[in-house]
């Protein structure tokens, strides 16, 4: 019997880049994010006259209520950008290395700022307490669901490095009490400002629609995060996240139409195109923010070509 030739040695794992190059790649990723956001806003602005032409054309030629463009693309894009920042804030809250009380306080302050921007964008919401109640509940529910969803994604993935690293002391308890006090005081101030009470908080006629919109946007954002967390090269993960965005947008928009226009006696309050634009733009902003960061993180660790999954560790 002849001896089998020795198997060639396995190639060494790709080495991580130096800290300076990793920092450079992260800066380039942030610049790419800003550029992509700018492109989306420019295209949304250019869509305004197209939306007006589309409405005039369909109404004059075909008499159809359905239009191919949203009624106010720039306004919907602005609202979607605010909603996307809520989702991204939830992702940051879960994955941040900050102490729990510090990142919670930062997230609450950021949420208050985003709600203030929403009031500036939606003029009628500033003047109606019931509308403001619907939107703040929708954004808050969306943020909470995204945080829970991303946490579940991390629990089933390899990202468990932060577990058990934090120490809780009496100082931590005192700081958490201060954060809770700030949250309660802010909520009391907003309730007094808009005249919210348990009797009138849920009275807006479109409260259920806006709440469902927040749930749909949260599900789309979590699907994108889950796709980007797959043990695949970043190109495959980017395609998976894009597919999740498109499929989630279509299913969510048609689902809302089915729930509120077909199965119930209430009204959706907007066209299916408007809802799809709002959900899709929110997901697009999330995607163009997380994908460049994921690419920079992979290349900075030397894992852009091969990412080991659970199967690799079991061999």
From the structure above, extract its key features.
single chain; 315 residues; mainly alpha; 10 helices
How is this structure best described in words?
The two termini are 29 Å apart. This protein has helices at 19-62, 73-95, 100-121, 123-127, 129-155, 170-194, 207-228, 234-262, 272-300, 310-314. The chain is built from ten helices and no strands. 73% of the residues lie in helices and 0% in strands. α2 (73-95) packs across α5 and α2 packs across α7 (207-228). It has 315 residues and is mainly α. It has a domain at 22-47 and 66-97 and 135-158 and 204-304. The model is unreliable at 62-66 and 303-315 (pLDDT under 50).
Secondary structure elements and their pairing?
Blueprint: H1 19-62, H2 73-95, H3 100-121, H4 123-127, H5 129-155, H6 170-194, H7 207-228, H8 234-262, H9 272-300, H10 310-314
């Amino acid at each position: 019997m002849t001896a089998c030739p020795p198997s060639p040695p396995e190639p060494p794992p790709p080495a991580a880049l130096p800290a300076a190059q990793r920092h450079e790649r992260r800066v380039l990723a942030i610049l790419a994010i800003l550029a992509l956001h700018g492109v989306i806003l420019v295209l949304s602005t250019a869509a305004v006259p197209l939306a007006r032409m589309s409405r005039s054309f369909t109404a004059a030629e075909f008499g159809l209520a359905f239009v191919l463009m949203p009624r106010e693309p720039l306004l919907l894009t602005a609202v979607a950008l605010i909603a996307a920042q809520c989702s991204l804030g939830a992702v940051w809250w879960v994955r941040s290395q900050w102490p729990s009380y510090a990142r919670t306080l930062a997230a609450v302050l950021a949420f208050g700022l985003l709600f203030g921007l929403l009031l500036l964008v939606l003029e009628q919401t500033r003047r109606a307490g019931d509308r403001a109640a619907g939107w703040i509940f929708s954004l808050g529910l969306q943020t909470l669901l995204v945080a829970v969803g991303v946490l579940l994604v991390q629990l089933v993935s390899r990202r468990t490095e932060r577990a058990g690293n934090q120490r809780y002391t009496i100082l931590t308890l005192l700081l958490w009490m201060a954060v809770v006090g700030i949250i309660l005081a802010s909520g009391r101030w907003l309730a007094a400002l808009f005249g919210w009470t348990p009797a009138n908080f849920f009275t807006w006629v479109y409260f259920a629609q806006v709440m469902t919109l927040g749930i749909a946007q949260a599900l789309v954002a979590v699907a994108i995060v889950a796709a980007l967390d797959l043990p695949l090269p970043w190109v495959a993960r980017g395609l998976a996240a894009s597919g999740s965005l498109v499929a989630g947008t279509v299913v969510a928009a048609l689902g809302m139409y089915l729930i509120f226009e077909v199965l119930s006696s209430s009204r959706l309050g907007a066209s299916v195109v408007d809802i799809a634009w709002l959900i899709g733009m929110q997901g697009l902003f999330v995607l163009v923010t997380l994908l460049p960061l994921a690419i920079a993180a992979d290349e900075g660790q030397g894992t852009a070509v091969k990412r080991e999954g659970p199967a690799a560790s079991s061999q």
